[in-house]
Amino acid sequence: MDAGRPPASRPRVRWARRVAFVVLGLAVGLPFAPPLLLRGAVLRWLVARETASLCGAIRVEGGSLGWLVVPDLLLGRPFAVELRGLRVAGPNGGEVLAAEQINADVGVARSPWRVVVAPALVSRGRWRLAVDDADGGFLGAFRAVPEGATRAACLAPAPRLGGPRPPPSPGASLVVRDARLDEIDVELDFPVWGLALPRVRATGSLAVGTPGGVGFTFDVRDARAPGGRLRAGPGGVHATAATTTALFDDVVISHVGVAPDEPSDLVLAVAHADTGRSRLTGTALFENVFARHGRRGER
Description:
The chain has helices at 9-29, 33-37, 40-50, 69-74, 137-141; strands spanning 57-59, 62-65, 79-89, 95-109, 113-130, 172-190, 193-208, 216-225, 228-232, 244-248, 250-259, 262-275, 278-286. It has five helices and 13 strands.
């Protein structure tokens, strides 16, 4: 008992202790509140809100953040992220990227947005890379909506001027390093050729909209697929009698990518692509795939 303490002071002491415990609990618990709150519907809302200024639409079904996300963000350190049901649609609404699950370490900076993902595991999904006159598709998804306009302006064809066309200002930059792809359906769709590979396993890197960079680079190595389809000639509604398609039973691509020193060209190195008793090997250079002067297509 506190025999020497006046009875009136005892409630104040108990109140002070309770306040101290509440303050201590908040100090300890607040850093762990975001990982508990940023999941499910809250995470879906946050992703949609923070990417609303982009030409593409980015959605997630759910996921979670690492327990130390608050101190990691304050100290500029990457934090662990798990996303489920990622969907990225281009400006025209077509799906350009999907993944059932992504586990990665992510670093984030704002003004402008810069997201660095390394390493990452992307499981069971699709990636479609195409080039069209409206700058839609995967590349267009990360462009910023023109100031004072709606997303419909993202599909407006660029004026065909005689001089070089300045590159669009990115609304965000995305850098992915040390990414491992596990069962990803890949489709490369260009005006005069195309390649579709199911359930690809590979490693790679990617950069979109990096400040001072060339706009877009990617590098995929040691890609393996249990089959594939190669199109030579225009596809879809533009297909002609000269368009041919080759089906493969087993495909190993040692390298496919866009080099920083030649950002308009794509290099494809096939270790082997088997069909029946035939085997395709070799390296191909597709020039001007990602044209820098308003043109589309290969030379």
